[in-house]
Every structure is written in C-alpha cells, then in structure tokens.
Amino acid sequence: MSASSPPAAADEDDRNSPPATVDAAAAPPDEQRPIRYIIQNLERAYGVPQNSRRSDPLDMLVRIILSQATSDTNSRRTFDALKRRFPTWDAALRARESTIARTIQSGGLANQKAAVIKSLLRQIKQERGALDLSFLHQLPPAAAVRYLSRFRGIGPKTIACTLLFACRTEVFPLDTHIFRILRRVGLIPQKCTDRRAHEIMNALVPTGKFYSFHVNLIRHGRALCRPRDPLCERCPIVEYCDYGQTLI
After folding, report:
1. 91, 121, 141, 232: which could join 244 in a potential S-S bond, CB 3.0 to 4.6 Å?
2. Tell me, what CATH number does 94's domain have?
C-alpha cells in the first residue's frame, strides 16, 4: 500500500509469531546513535510524516488482511466492496464464508482471507460480546500485541501495522522494502527471522519516531534503495549503509 496508508499485510512467515515489544532503553547506546542520524536524514529527504488521526482498529485490521498479496488500488477497492456488502461487522459475521470470499475476490486469495476474517470476527464476538476493538487504543504496546497475536492468520506485520496506524501505538512494522534497507544498512542481520527483526527494531527506534521511520523507509525503498540497481549515489543515508559503502 502507499506510504501514507497501511502497509501490506503479512507474508507467509508473518503468521508464525507476534512482534516482540521491547523497551528502547534495552538497545546499546552505540546502536541507538546511528539510527537517530538515519531517521534525521530520511526526514530531511522525504519530510516528517504525521499520523495525527486515530481510526477504528477492527476496520484497520481487516484492511490489512485484505491488502496481502495485492496492489494498493485493489486493496482499497476490496475493502470498500466488503463494507458496502456488509455495512456492519455483525452483518459480515452472519454471512457465509463463501459470500465474504465472493465479495473480496478481486483482491486475490479470497478464500484464505475470508476464512481469516470470519474466524477473527467469530472469536472477537465470542470473547468480548461485541465486534469492537476500540479498547486497543488504551492498551500499552505489549498488551495490545499479546491480544492480537491470539488470532489465527494474524502475524507480526499485520499486528504492528494495525496498532501503529489505527492506534498510534509505537510498534514497528517491517515490510519487504524495510527488510531490504535495514539489512543493507546493517541494523538487522542478513539472516534474521521475522520475529527477531521486529524485536530488534522495536528496541532501536526512538520514541516518537516509529511512524516517521516506517513511512520514510518505504518511500526510500521505492525511490532509491530498490531491489535491483539501487541509486546509492543519491542516497541520503549512504554514509551509514554497509552495502552502500562497498559501492562508493
């Protein structure tokens, strides 16, 4: 999805474990220092994005599920179609799983996504008596992560995106662009599990910079730090990049 909208949902490995929420103070000072310069340089290059408005966590969670393995345009279209067909989540819960799948088929993986959504709605209703996740706005990061990690098909990136974008909770999501850049820079190891990468970054990112760093890394990955032929000569963080230093 676009840098100003929720990132795409989980890859396959996203479903394996929840993102760890770690106190940033746990990161050694020598590791905190360069990340502040990286964030600062990215903000100079791309601006300081603001996540100023909270939104409904359940809406956001479903949007991110629907964004998996599809384009931004398809994701938005599919979510809009789902909301038109089922104006309330209670209506979606009452519907057959096959009906949900037909409604969202333009977004791809319709049967899989419909099963996840139906299971999610059913479990929330059984446990809480209402299809409402607004209480997540008040939970501390670790508690919010623990709650969302209990649902089938909801993994680290989906959880982190939901909490960061809907609740402004400081949990750091990693998508494909972000993994690539962080590996090149050297902030996460080349071989690193999804859960471990989330754990490392939740420890390293300074308070108040989770949203800005997340959005600007996606922008940077699309504009310059591309999978092939990255434009290192134009990179605002090349001086802190292990990969870039081998090319200049």
Report:
1. 232
2. 1.10.340.30
